[in-house]
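Below is a filled-in request sheet from our internal design queue. Each sheet records the structural input a requester submitted and the sequence that came back. We keep these sheets so that new team members can see what a complete request looks like end to end.

REQUESTER: design group, bay 2
PRIORITY: normal
MODE: inverse folding
CHAIN LENGTH: 394
BACKBONE (tokenized):
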């Protein structure tokens, strides 16, 4: 069967003859499904993964999206939940028990870190954070009770990548489940499952939706793993995506390849401008020639999209505030992957008075380049940087 990106995005899972040959699939906005025979109802009670019973579980509109996203990931199956945080929670909780140990890369997504630091310790599950850029660090940290290795490649702020194939090989020898947050890349630019990772997760809020109007999460893997998570964690927590939001994500998928191509091209122009500016100390992204991991990044990834970070050459967090608040068209906001360009300074999350001008992380600004023209964005950045210079001369 044809599994090209064009086929997956435009046709896979869309049985148009079942809904009046409509080009766009319908939104099956129902809470439950009726049965003609009690025996059929009983069969679904036995295996809710096998048929439609209640939209807390399976739903036809959501299933169209599931088929597409699993195919894009190169996975057997996937689940779509109501947030990226839900995808993380469900994938981790399905694979730990009291007394287990988790290895996580440093500085994962904040709600993954919250799960590891505040929720799991209540049940006797502990986490060790490591520098994931060296395979030796994983080998040295594995304990007899290690059940999960949690990865984020690339990291959404600092761009570090992990050798996914090597880590997957190591983990399989030890019977450890590997989970990778692939939100930075999308399945179009990286497929962790094809590199041997057990569960690939992503925030569909970002590139998959593409319009900053849907919150959703995806986890992909084998049918056995997905069924396990569905029957226990997902049905219990009930954090399923709504049919309306699934339909919006299907719509977002239609333009995903061209949006990724556009933002990557524009982001390169913006990065080139920033790299030449005296108020920029460093521009950080996986394919940067200054990144010691750039060869590994290019081996695993097909592209880098529109997300990157840069370090401002400033003396105070007040100067970072001046820059961000002087932007006229680029918004100050979290997330990425939509039509609009965004910035988020790391100093916004620092305790008051703790800014250190010698700490590059404190001077870091994450930027997402959207669908605007590169000249439009560069002009906005330029005038905002000029505001820092002007403030210094007062």
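RETURNED SEQUENCE:
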């Amino acid at each position: 069967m044809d599994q090209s990106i064009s086929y997956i995005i435009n046709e896979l899972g869309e049985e148009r003859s079942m809904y009046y040959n409509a080009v766009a699939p319908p939104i099956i906005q129902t809470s439950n499904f009726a049965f003609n025979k009690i025996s059929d109802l009983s069969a679904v009670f036995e295996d809710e993964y096998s048929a439609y019973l209640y939209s807390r579980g399976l739903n036809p509109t959501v299933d169209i999206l599931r088929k597409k996203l699993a195919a894009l990931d190169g996975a057997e199956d996937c689940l779509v939940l109501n947030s990226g945080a839900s995808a993380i929670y469900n994938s981790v909780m399905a694979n730990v028990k009291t007394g287990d140990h988790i290895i996580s890369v440093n500085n994962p997504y904040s709600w993954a870190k919250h799960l590891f630091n505040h929720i799991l310790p209540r049940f006797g599950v502990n986490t060790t954070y490591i520098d994931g850029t060296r395979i030796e660090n994983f080998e040295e940290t594995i304990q007899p009770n290690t059940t999960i290795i949690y990865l984020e490649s690339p990291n959404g702020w600092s761009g570090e990548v992990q050798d996914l194939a090597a880590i997957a090989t190591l983990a399989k020898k030890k019977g450890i489940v590997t989970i990778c947050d692939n939100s930075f890349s999308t399945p179009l630019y990286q497929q962790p499952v094809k590199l041997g990772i057990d569960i690939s997760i992503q925030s569909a809020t970002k590139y998959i939706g593409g319009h900053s109007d849907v919150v959703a999460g995806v986890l992909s893997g084998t049918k056995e793993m997905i069924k396990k998570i569905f029957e226990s964690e997902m049905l219990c927590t009930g954090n399923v995506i709504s049919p309306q939001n699934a339909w919006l994500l299907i719509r977002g998928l239609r333009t995903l390849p061209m949006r990724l191509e556009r933002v990557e091209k524009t982001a390169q122009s913006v990065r080139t401008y920033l790299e030449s500016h005296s108020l920029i100390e460093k521009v950080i992204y996986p394919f940067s020639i200054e990144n010691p991991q750039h060869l590994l990044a290019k081996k695993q990834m097909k592209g880098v999209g529109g997300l990157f970070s840069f370090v401002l050459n400033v003396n105070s967090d007040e100067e970072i505030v001046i820059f961000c608040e002087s932007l006229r068209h680029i918004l100050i906001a979290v997330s990425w992957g939509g039509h609009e360009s965004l910035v988020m300074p790391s100093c916004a999350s620092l305790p008051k008075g703790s800014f250190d001008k010698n700490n590059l992380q404190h001077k870091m600004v994450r930027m997402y380049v959207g669908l605007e023209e590169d000249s439009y964005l560069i002009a906005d950045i330029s005038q905002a940087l000029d505001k820092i210079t002007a403030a210094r001369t007062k």
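SHEET NOTES:
- Residues 256-275 form the longest helix (20 residues).
- The chain has two domains: 5-254, 257-392.
FILED BY: M.R.
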